[in-house]
Amino acid sequence: MKPNILFLLIDSLRANKCHGDKKSSIIPNIDSLIQQGVYFNQAISATDGTFTSLGSILTSLLPFKTHISWFHNHSKATKFFDFLKNNGYHTYATVPNMPFFSNLTTNFDDKDITDGKPYLNLYQGAGEMIVQRISNTIKEPWIYFIHAMDLHGNELPQKEFNDEHYGSDDYERRLSSLDAWIGKILEKIDKEKTLIVLTADHGEHIHDLVMHPEYIPSVHKIFKNGARFVPDFLSPIGLKLFVAIRTMASKIRMRRYRQELNEDEMRTLIQRGEGTLYDEVLRVPLIFSGYGITSHKIIPQQVRHIDIFPTIMDLLNLPLGEVDGNSLLPHFNNEKIDELPAYIENVSSIEQSQGNTIGVRMSTYKYYRARKNLKENVTLFDLINDPDEKNNIANSNPDIVKNMEKILVGFTNSALSESTKKLSRDEKRRSIKNRMRLDVTSYETDSD
Question: pLDDT tens-digit profile of 338-361?
Answer without folding.
Answer: 999 999 999 876 666 788 999 999
